[in-house]
Amino acid sequence: MRRDKISSFSLLALLFISRLMSRLIYIPPRAGPGGGWDEILLTIVSFAANALLFLPALFLEKSGGGVIRSAKSPAARRLSASFYAVLFVFAAVQTIARFDFFATLSMSSRPLAIPFSLLLSAAACYAALLGLTALSRAGCVIGFLMALSLTALSAALWQKYDVLSMEPPFSYSAGEMSDNLIHSSFLMPETAVAAVLSDSTRGGVGKKYFAFLAFSAAAVCAVAFIPAAVFGQAADTRLFALFQCATVADFGSLGRLDPIIVSLWIGGAFVKASLFLASAVISVRQANGNVKKRPAAVFFAAVTAFAAWRLSRDIGLVSSPALNVIEQVLTGICAAAVPLAALIRVQKRKKQREAGPET
Amino acid sequence: MKDKKTVKGFFIALLCCLFFAGCSGSGKITGSELYAESVGIDYEDGGFVCTVQVFDPDTGAVTYQEQQESMTTVIGAAGDSVAGALSQIPQKLSRRVFYSQNKVIVLGQSALSVPEQSLDFFLRDWESGLNTRLMIADGDAATIINADFGGVVNPSERLRLAAEGERTGGSSGICTLLDIVKASADDTLGLAIPVMRLQNRGEDNEHLECVSSLLFAGLRPVGELTAEQSQTLLMLRNRASSVEISLGGTEQTAVELTKIKTVTDVSVEYADEGPAVICRLDISAKGAVTQSASHAEIDRIGSLITAQLEKRARQTAESAAKYGCDLFKIAQRLRYADKNYYRAVRKNWKGELSRVRFVIRADCVITKTGDKTLRM
């Protein structure tokens, strides 16, 4: 039993990689205002909003209930588990499709013999089968290396920063800001992952989730700041701007940092996709203990591989606003609505138990 | 034990991921590839002529002299576009050419009529870096790429140093592809690209000299700065570590300025006759006089240099502003200083720039005369 549990620090590392990768390979639905100080402000706002969203799951964990296990009936458990599974598979599909697009653009000038999405899905399926413990060990190493590479990159670009070329704060109207907030990563599926995996974490997720938010906010702000300070307004017109920054960074005799960045991003995308597939399997098994791990992981991986392969063939689909909205609605349900409903039910049951002996 | 095996398997799988896209479908880098070190682009009869200096790591040269002589080759090719011309080169050499290590791009005067098409390939290609320096030839780019620098230094290194103004008080400015990318997205940005001319030093050794700087507003050429103004620009941008400046007139004394620092500040003054943008340039420098001088002379030289610095800075700044080239990022500073005023004048920025008032203050302190270091 202990074998399936990971430390809260390991979970923090996995969630950190997931959030960082979301920002690194994010493809905006359309060109428009995005960069500069406003994006940094929006990042801070969105992380603060996610801290609030996690409160129901935190209180639920303190009262000893899991988000899926606390459901009223087996049917309700299955329904909430299916919401989580769909969200996690959806997040894995988006990760692999976006990374496939990035890999095709930046790593090889020729079409690959085997689509990258299929290879990454197969690797993620294998990692999901190995379990959370193995994944968390890789997550700690890759998370540390990714944080280190981000620090090294920001240091290597030191002489190229031109803060003046960034849009000053509050350059965009309130409408543009809110529009951008909605279309960027306002809701994070990591909140739902933390809620589901609190049962698989030694000592629970608890306040460590806020540490994850703080670390991730700092890293995501750095990812927003570096391209805006290096490219100025041109950052808004460039896909994967941080990767392009790595091509202009010099670090002593090391002329370009992009090969190092790419190799770490492959690891990051792999850990992220594996985390979501593993979470999908765990959520289904929390609703029904009879579900076998292997068939579930293979089924989810097959769905992910097909959807990611289909999506990655069309950049319009990968970045479509409709998919963003679907993901955000699902995240809203899984990160806030389901834990809130479970919390209300747990509190109600507790009150009934307390009132029971008196009556 | 089982855990260890699992982790090992996991890491092997992870390592395999590194090779999935990077190498699949591509040949691995061997000694049979060539590396472009500098590229010259000319525009002739509606097509492009590219002259590429390539570095061959596979010649077997041992000594430095042998390496200089045998490792560098210059090859030219023509095509409808830059990409088309460059694609001819591997066919001519029967070897693939990588552009990731390219240091300098030289644009011929003819290519200036189509600057976007000339640079398009290098701005889009993921392999070539945006750190590549850019310079303009005073004539054909091919002449500069083919120049004989005496075999003392690597030709492309020579070009790179020339593009950087030799790092120590040279007279050219630095412009990279990154600057072009930034200017293409923000047309208020001004660029100064050095114009280089080959000068014969005798003994068949040629030498590159910056004769002027071509000014661009966005990606449109708008005017030109003289060689002296180009040097002053480097100084004002805090990029010159040392500048030699003569006192002018009948004075023969030369002063070497070191530790030059310029602070730029932009504000809007709302006067009765209307608002005006003020750009303040505060230049501070430390100088060394090559020959011994008395205290009175030092004071006199200091004030002469200060006046000279102020004059040169004013001429340079006002010339650039007159052409509508914002070399001091006045628009960007104005966005922070007075956002509303910037929004009001944004559409007619070129006209507004010509009305900017420059307030220039220089301060030069002589810290060394002859071999004697003065105590401050």
CA gyration radius of chain A, whole angstroms:
21 Å
As a percent range, the share of helical residues of chain B equals 25-40%
Level of helix content of chain A? over 70%
- Summed up, the domain count of chain A is 1
Overall structural class of chain B, as computed from helix and strand content, comes to alpha/beta
Choose one word for the global shape of chain B: globular
Strand and helix order of chain B:
HEEHEHEEHEHHHEEEHEEEHHHHEE
Biggest sheet character of chain A: 2 strands, parallel
The CATH architecture term of chain A is: Up-down Bundle
Write down how many β-strands of chain A occur, each being a DSSP E stretch of 2 or more residues.
2
Please report which band the strand proportion of chain A falls in: under 5%, 5-15%, 15-25%, 25-35%, 35-45% or over 45%.
under 5%
Q: How many whole angstroms does the radius of gyration of chain B measure?
A: 25 Å
Residue windows where pLDDT falls under 50 for at least 5 positions of chain A: none
**Binned strand content of chain B:** 25-35%
